[in-house]
3-oxoacyl-ACP synthase
Amino acid sequence: MIGIQATSIYEPELKETAVDLAVKTGIPEQVIVEKFGLYEKRIAPDHLHASDLAIAAGKKILRHIDPKAIDVVIYFGSPYKDYPIWTASSKAQYELGTTSAYAFEMMNVSSCFPIAVKVAKDMIRSDESVNHILLVGGSKESMTINYENPRSRFMFNFADGGTAALVSRNATKSEILASSIITDGSFSGDVLVPGGGSVQPVSTEVVEKKLHFLDVPDPLGMKERLDPVSIPNFTRVIKQAVERSGVRLDDLKMLFPLHTKKSMFREMLEGVGLKEDQAVYLTHHGHMSALDPCYGLHLAERNGLLKNGDIAVIVSAGTGYTWAATAIRWFGMAV
């Protein structure tokens, strides 16, 4: 049985509260809490980068398994890393002592964790030499936001953290079931960092105009096109992941989504017939690129929200735009 055998998270100590964000953005604290769904988020110190956050989470998992038993290390976290052209996966492989493993990266911004879990399962199923895959992710995306830019308002919940998951061939804690993924590339130019790439290379102008921060060139245009399809696509991938797993939607007990505004979170739950206590909403962590669903799964286990036999879905979406969901069956036996 191929499943997620362990998860871990790393939370930076520094907290930025709704009050802090209100001062920084000019948005009332009540709006940040009630509409953004955010009481606080974590911010990493200057000396910790995406790779360090991922490694810190990975080390916690390796307390329970020999690092040399890991066959593959996959970095699935934020594309905003320590350096622009560089592999965090190689650094993680070395610093975690997983010297028998090869390493590579998956990059699909916020949608990546459900996809990475599917890829890890498929790799183990297709290659008899692979028994344990360590997924690691880091996010320092709080640094990508220009709070003076109202076009990037929906990204003000971006935060920092690290997480990891161990996918094993003979898992006892859970079984990875089916997945569903939708991509609509018509949104590929709607959210981006304008400067620093080959279109607008790094220059004095890029820095002076703050083109090295995330931006939404046409917020109204994106909203008009995205709103009609976003919740239907979330609903579709969740339902398809469950149905392809050979169970009914009524069997779905828990949802682990990315952190979104509160209204979207509620619509997502309503679309699949769940209540708010059947999901983990990261009110005290914010949005950490692809890390959110792994955080949710870890916190659900830690807080005793999962029972033996429960069907759960990890689900996320990333700008570009891709919606992805993977179903798991939970058993909860010790690592």
Summary: The mean pLDDT is 97.
